[in-house]
Amino acid sequence: MSQMEPIVTEHQTLRPLTAEDITPAYLEALNDPEVVRWTEARHQRWDEASAAAYITRSNEPGASVLLGIFLKDSGRHIGGIRLFNIHPVDRRAELSLMIFDKSQWSHGCATEALEAVVDHAFNAWGLHRLHADYYAENAASARLFAKAGFQIEGVYKDHFFIGGAHMDSIRVAKVKPRETALESARRAFIPSAGPSMTEWEVRRVSQAVQDGWYTNMRREIDEFERRMAAHAGRRYALALSSCTGAIHVALMSLGIGPGDEVSAPDLTWVA
Ligand SMILES: CC(C)(COP(=O)(O)OP(=O)(O)OC[C@H]1O[C@@H](n2cnc3c(N)ncnc32)[C@H](O)[C@@H]1OP(=O)(O)O)[C@@H](O)C(=O)NCCC(=O)NCCS
Could you tell me which residue, 117 or 198, shows the higher pLDDT? Predict the structure, then answer.
């Protein structure tokens, strides 16, 4: 995944973070108590070496990926989103994210990045389940995950010790939505179109039945053939009850018989 193509959204580019992306602004944010207040990054002071080691640890092929979130228009690095503990058999991963650039908070950046990564994880990487944990008082995370369709699965009582007191941790998860019956049918079958039957056809058929179709059936057929001939710019048109009948007549009119070769497509009856 560290060799992956960037994920491009409306306003962002997300790509694996590298040590070259470490800037003084990034380190300053990682050491800003307001930014890391409700993250595990709060437990240490960050410098270039520790940030580089974290980036290396977080980009372990097949197990973990740390995507930097960059604004498309300015190229500015504003945050990161990390998938880790990726399980190849169960096809699940844990997720964490941070918009470290405080000037970008509440602009929809986390929503845009999270939705894109969830979609990519399910549809490009083949993952089935994602889960995340957040500090119970982190209202922004609560709203963010709820908006992105994550469900609360449980509460870890007093999981964190912060500001002299314990705080709960909230576990949320999202499972790849199952296909609807219609979606799986669409994937399984070559689509075919049924005939178009409008009120008009229904009216004409019932009219023909009421008029005694068995005695004057030619009336409708003659009219149909006359109109078809005019439409096709031919002197005659012949109505038949099936495509099979039409092919027989066409072959006969061309003089095709035993021993002749006729090529036909392998997909027929599409309508
Ligand atoms: C949590 C965080 C990722 C949210 O990022 P963001 O880009 O500001 O989020 P968005 O702008 O996409 O907002 C998502 C929703 O949360 C709401 N929200 C944002 N900040 C909020 C706050 N402080 N309190 C309550 N709701 C908040 C938004 O209004 C929005 O909901 P809405 O669309 O119904 O209005 C960001 O604040 C952050 O990185 N904080 C520091 C690190 C952190 O806490 N990471 C999360 C670890 S789980």
Answer: 117
